[in-house]
Specification:
By secondary structure, this protein is of the alpha+beta class. Helices cover about 20% and strands about 25% of the residues. The strands form four sheets. A two-stranded antiparallel sheet has the order 1-8. The chain has a two-stranded antiparallel ribbon with strand order 2-7.
Length: about 120
C-alpha cells in the first residue's frame, strides 16, 4: 500500500490514541510549524517555503516545509502479507494513515498492489 502524496505517510502500528498523540507531539517537536518569539506565534523558517529559492514554484504554493520534513521520519508505503484475501496483521497492528498537511486539501489517494499466486 502506498500513499501518492509527499506530505502523507503510512505506518503499521497500534491504533491507540495515546500512541498517536505521543508520535505527533514528538515529530512536531523535531519539525515545528510555529515558534514563539516575544509571546507571538510565528512560522518556523523552512527553505522549502522560501519561494525565492525554489525552482518553478506554483503561484498558490503552500508553506508546508514542516509537513515534508515530518513525513520524512515515517514511510510512504507498507507491505503486508495477504492470506485468503485478508491482510495478516499482529493482534494490535493496523495500517495508519498520517496526513501532515491536511487543511484545505482535496481527498487523498492510496495505491494498492497485490502480487503472488491467485
Amino acid at each position: 500500500v502506498q500513499t501518492l502524496h509527499t506530505t502523507t505517510a503510512l505506518l503499521l502500528q497500534e491504533d491507540e490514541p495515546g500512541f498517536i498523540r505521543d508520535l505527533q507531539k514528538r515529530i512536531a517537536r523535531i519539525f515545528p510549524q510555529h515558534y514563539k518569539r516575544r509571546g507571538k506565534r510565528r512560522l518556523e523558517y523552512y527553505e522549502h517555503d522560501d519561494l525565492k529559492k525554489r525552482k518553478n514554484p506554483q503561484p498558490d504554493e503552500r508553506r508546508n516545509g514542516f509537513a515534508h520534513c515530518r513525513v520524512s521520519l515515517l514511510s510512504a508505503s507498507v507491505m503486508l502479507i495477504v492470506n485468503r484475501g485478508r491482510p495478516v496483521l499482529g493482534e494490535w497492528q493496523q495500517v495508519l494513515f498520517f496526513d501532515c498537511d491536511p487543511k484545505g486539501r482535496p481527498p487523498r489517494r492510496l495505491r494498492l498492489m497485490v502480487m503472488g499466486m491467485p
